[in-house]
Amino acid sequence: MDAPEFRTIIEPFRIHSVEPLRMTTPQQRRTAVQAAGYNLFRIDAQDVLIDLLTDSGTGAMSRDQWAALQHGDESYAGSPSYYLFRDAVRELFPFEHVIPTHQGRAAERILFGVLGGPGKVVPNNTHFDTTRANVEYTGAAAVDLVTSEAADPSSDYPFKGDTDVAALEALLRTDGERVPVVMVTITNNSGGGQPVSLANLRAVREVCDTYGKPLFLDACRFAENAWFIRENEAGQGGREVADIVRDIAALADGMTMSAKKDPMGNIGGWLAMNDDELARQCRDLLILTEGFPTYGGLAGRDLEALAQGLREVVEHDYLRYRIRSTAYLGESLREAGVPVVSPIGGHAVYLDAKALLPHVPPLQYPGQSLAVALYEAGGVRSCEIGTVMFGRHPDGSEQPAARELVRLAIPRRTYTQSHIDYVIETCLHVAANAESLGGYRIVDEPPNLRHFTASFAPLD
Ligand code: F0G
């Protein structure tokens, strides 16, 4: 018999401990979402059936990660768990200084606390919401310079996270003194979970060299990005993902990191860099708000679990399953006629609410309307990435965001294919009734990051 080639890509693990899900009725969910001011961040998790709000900190740890927790050394200073963590980070990202933080936004706050400030401009392919907020909080401006391919939701260009290098060059040429650092987010979360090519990163590096600017990665989903490079970039097929990650790291001067994504942690992050003086200033700030530089707000056991997670996330069997299972959700929806961002991203599928709800204008928040409908119909929690998240500007004005997306983020190693089949059914039901969905207005909102806490009310 010939060696068979099976088409089904299975989960490269079996389940070791289970968590119950609580079933709810549509009536219970309507009551819950109304009580939460139609804001899905304010719903109790136990009222959610399938939680696709985020892939951040929601993944399942492996047996070996749970075992690693037992090795945690909780010494305040110089814990061996720190050195194990630092070496695991350096194995992939060989930066001189590795500074743990409790999560990614703490690394951002510290970095921009040192480099930001009034009058400064920070370019990025697309800032994530907390990154933008941390830049703007210092008085600096955050500018998004993503490739024009990204604006077309139906284009199948495989690296829609690429930076618009010409636009970056123009910014540095005309306004270079105001730019303290160039950022690239891999994968580009707010732009649809889209990867950045190695060729584009090289081009960004060249421009940074020409103008003498440091390049920092926001690298939360580096392994997924490297897998896409291996799959889709000329000359990269067949390479080890870990080697591709090291190539990416070699192009940068430092990074901010949320370890709640690809490093498979439930909490954690880090800041890394080569510049000694910058590292000194960052550690000084770290001690103010996060803790001593060898734990940075984390327990020693968290550092151990992250070190193990970093080894697991670059395994090819894992990444093949991860990327394929996200594509399964996206392709099933697309084939059934639901508008989704193409190509399908690594950690999430993004529904195009503008296309699905053309009758709801941006300032009536079509993404919010779609996200609420998915929750009411099936108990599926998603996240609006549109005018609610990005529409309010530091000067107080409100403008429509470039896109109105609803993100279905897939926690790592957590849901099975039948959970995802249920999500597909829920989406198809809502899409079939999309004409009946109306807009929302905001009843109250905080000055920053309004999407987390704002209250909404349905319009008639
Ligand atoms: N950068 C990117 C690209 C992110 O996706 C996130 C978090 C952060 C930075 C901040 O990291 O949460 O550890 O403070 N993204 C999560 C999400 C919250 O749902 O996409 P954090």
Bound molecules: ligand F0G
Widest β-sheet, arrangement of strands: 2-8-7-6-5
CATH architecture of the largest domain: 3-Layer(aba) Sandwich
Low-confidence parts: none
How many strands in all?
A: 14
* Name of the CATH homologous superfamily of the largest domain: Type I PLP-dependent aspartate aminotransferase-like (Major domain)
Tell me the Rg in angstroms: 21 Å
Description of the molecule:
The chain has 460 residues and is α/β, with parallel strands linked by helices. It has two domains: 26-48 and 315-458, Aspartate Aminotransferase, domain 1 (Alpha-Beta Complex), CATH 3.90.1150.10; 63-312, Type I PLP-dependent aspartate aminotransferase-like (Major domain) (Aspartate Aminotransferase, domain 2), CATH 3.40.640.10. 40% of the residues lie in helices and 12% in strands. The protein has helices spanning 26-35, 63-69, 80-92, 104-115, 129-137, 165-175, 198-211, 222-232, 241-250, 276-289, 300-313, 316-335, 353-356, 366-378, 387-390, 417-432; strands at residues 50-51, 97-101, 121-124, 141-144, 182-185, 215-218, 254-258, 269-273, 348-352, 380-381, 383-385, 405-409, 440-444, 455-458. A five-stranded mixed beta sheet has the order 2-8-7-6-5, sandwiched between helices. Strand 3, helix 5 and strand 4 (141-144) form a beta-alpha-beta unit. The longest helix has 20 residues, at 316-335. It starts with 25 loop residues before the first helix and ends with a strand. Ligand F0G binds at residues 54, 56, 103-105, 128, 130-131, 185, 189, 218, 220, 258, 260, 269, 409.
